[in-house]
Amino acid sequence: MYLLILLIIFLGLIKFLFLLIKNKNLTFVIISGVTLFFISIFRSIYFTTDVQVYVNNYVSMPYVNLSYFWSNFITNKGKDPFFYLFSKIISLTGASYRIWLAIIAGIFCYSISKFIYKYSKEPYISFIILISLGYFYFSLSGLRQTLALSIILLSYKYLRERNIYKFVVFVLLGSLFHLSAIIFLIAYPLSNIKIGWKQIIGVIGALVVAYFFSERLLTLLVYFNMNEKYNYYIEHGTTLTISGFIIQLSIYLFCLYYKKNVLESDNKDITLYNLLFLGIVFQAFSAVIAEFFRISMYFSIFSIVLIPKAINSEKDRKIKMIIYMGIFVILVIYMLKAGSFDDFKFYWQEG
To answer: If we measure between CA atoms, which residue out of 97, 84, 94, 88 comes closest to residue 66?
Structure first.
């Protein structure tokens, strides 16, 4: 936990040190992204059980022929066979598991940093949201979905520009690493719909469907390779899903209050509102089937740039500062209460 506190303080110092320089946001984002990258690559592989399983699989790859992984990819055997083919190709270079983890961490940190730099009005609060709401933690654990999520973030540019061909290509590429990413295709027809009563009806409808058709939803999750359990989420199970729904709904309502101001600045930001709405819908299903939070993540992660846009749209500077500090304090308190990094260790602390 001390790591996260030190990280927030460090990023805050960097933010203020570079206030007066040219391209201050770019400099801050690069330093922040590199910091997260180094935390990722020097973490202990025993921090989460999932990484231990991934590392064991990677270490055993030199003893398995490339044709085996290629055959699994062609015939679509196993869970997300392209991820293991991708990992096998890396192992052929003689790269250690640390280098392999660094490649995955590098892809995520590049993607998230680029996204924040391009679309966030306040990169510092975006990184705090990324850390506090568990997205950074997840990147250290769910490696397959982390790669898929990284590519989904890169696809947003084409969703915003309404370039359907490039958008579909990126989403399909992401789904090769984790099949669940293909659900993001629904963002294209729904990202520009007008905000109104249909969103409220959608959330209520999602809760009803989740309650009465939970068995069929579970079958769908199994099809999308969403049936594995992460230890952290088993231990925090129902609390996580309920609090996750409340948090996402609260974020959406807060941003909705500033919708007029935000869209006056850039009407393309309606895509962010609709992505957050879709995240709430899928998170509603997690009240019955916890694994749905992982599908919700493809949409809810866009809050890391919409929240700063909403804060920035407040025209009264004093109120803006109060809101900024209030959200900052809430995020830090939630982060400390969640305690997801309580057992964090670097590799040199092992043993």
So the answer is: 88
